[in-house]
Design brief:
Length: 55
Amino acid sequence: MAEKHEVFKCTKCGQIIAILQGGEGTLICCEEEMINVTPDEGKKLIHDLQRPGAP
């Protein structure tokens, strides 16, 4: 079960998912279960993402 504000990452392709609304189930990417990253690593990953409208 994914909780709100958790961050998951695919070990194969590097896709990053931030949970906006928690729910049941398993996150799958590249036919593998995504890993839950630590809160500190999640903050760094989200901060490094490009934001729409940013230069």
